[in-house]
Write the structure tokens for this entry.
Amino acid sequence: VPLKTISILGVGLLGGSIGLATKSLITGCKIIGYGHRPATLSAAIERGAIDQGTTNLQQAVADCDLVILCTPVGLFRPIIQQIAPVLSDFAIVTDVGSTKRSVVELAAKHLRRPERFVASHPMAGSEKRGVEFARSDLFKDALCLTTPTALTDPQALAEVEQFWRLLGMRITRLSPQEHDRWIGQISHLPHAVAAALVTMQDQASLALAGKGFMDATRIAAGDAGLWRDIFLDNRDNLSAGIQRMKAELDRLLMALDANDEEAVMAWLDAAASMRQAMTKEKQ
Amino acid sequence: VPLKTISILGVGLLGGSIGLATKSLITGCKIIGYGHRPATLSAAIERGAIDQGTTNLQQAVADCDLVILCTPVGLFRPIIQQIAPVLSDFAIVTDVGSTKRSVVELAAKHLRRPERFVASHPMAGSEKRGVEFARSDLFKDALCLTTPTALTDPQALAEVEQFWRLLGMRITRLSPQEHDRWIGQISHLPHAVAAALVTMQDQASLALAGKGFMDATRIAAGDAGLWRDIFLDNRDNLSAGIQRMKAELDRLLMALDANDEEAVMAWLDAAASMRQAMTKEKQ
């Protein structure tokens, strides 16, 4: 079934990039963008990311084949509640949120046809925000996680995964619970840690920051509101991750306090070996 | 005074890069490399980083104008003890170590003319090691910290700083104590944190690692032996940094446990604003 009309709810970096990628890769597909600020919609139209924009949520989704939630995850509840009554029976709904348990629950609770909701997490983006940083190749060669449940219509799942593949992504399926646990550990925790590393600096140390510090903390520049939503939504997994992080640092503290060369070496070597192997694998 | 002979003790990434940079920027200067493995010395000669190599430490420094310690900091004590008896009276000695209190103390204790030792920390390098990754432009536009003391001969200090400037670096002077405190906070602590972030992952989470995680943990791939020396040498400052890091994470934990949107937002926003300002400053 060819996609005729796609509705992108939230035309920031991700929504805008989906628009640009779709328009460059799928012909004959109309893209409607929703946003609460007319200026954002104008900018998205100017950039060619959407064909038309509206600040009316229900208008944005009426008669669409595919609706993609691209706002911060904290807005998913009101959006899903508002679009539920006007979605057509054939519409497929997906999202790009960094947490998955809550949105799956919201869809199951509020949508008339929850089986046609397919939760997605395209792992692309940057610390930048806004449609002005959108790129048609943002998703190329990146990983997209989908988290279908027993409720999910296999046909809808296949169509959503096919859409992400068209944009250049590889697909990995997980349960919403697995997703939030592993992503909490490999993405949300590193963000918290990078933010803490930045905050604890002062003018004297910041003046000495080199490339290593800039790389290690780049993610901390990400939009605070967007990350607040993610942190709160996944706070059980994030809290558990922080506790494990503190325990890992305590192991180093003990080795340092004891001036134990072998223990410090073993601690550092385990990390260096793992990290070097990751670089090799990505090559 | 033109430099006629430079002795580079340890021809890895940093030593090799100093050799390459010197040969491309200073004419008529002979470079002698010391290493304990003949194969490393051959590789350094082949790359054009040194003119001749020796595995005899005392031969390497005899009759040299400038001696540069480029080994891991854990080797500074035996090296300084061994070169002390054979250094000529006019020789200037410097180093490239990432800690400064201990080397300043070693020089004061063991060198016949400690006033001609100028401690340096050129802030360049990468997680790579070995002369095969050496680059003549490694130091270009980077920061070099010098940590003179009341003992330091101003003429020797001026000559060493002029040498680093010739290699393209900016100079900042600090006391050895300030250096180890601030560098502990902006460089050694981030390394420890990145290593902990890597070690606590498992196969399931590693499979989902994106660009953010790779950037945030790149430094953790650095040579474990080199970093063991640094961690042990600066363990008081590093331990204090880890404690502050844990306190910072505890502030987030409390906000998460209380599901306190405003506190989580404030915590994230402080870091994002600081980090965004750093990016702007570097531009």
About this structure: The first helix of chain A runs from residue 13 to 25. The radius of gyration of chain A is 21 Å.
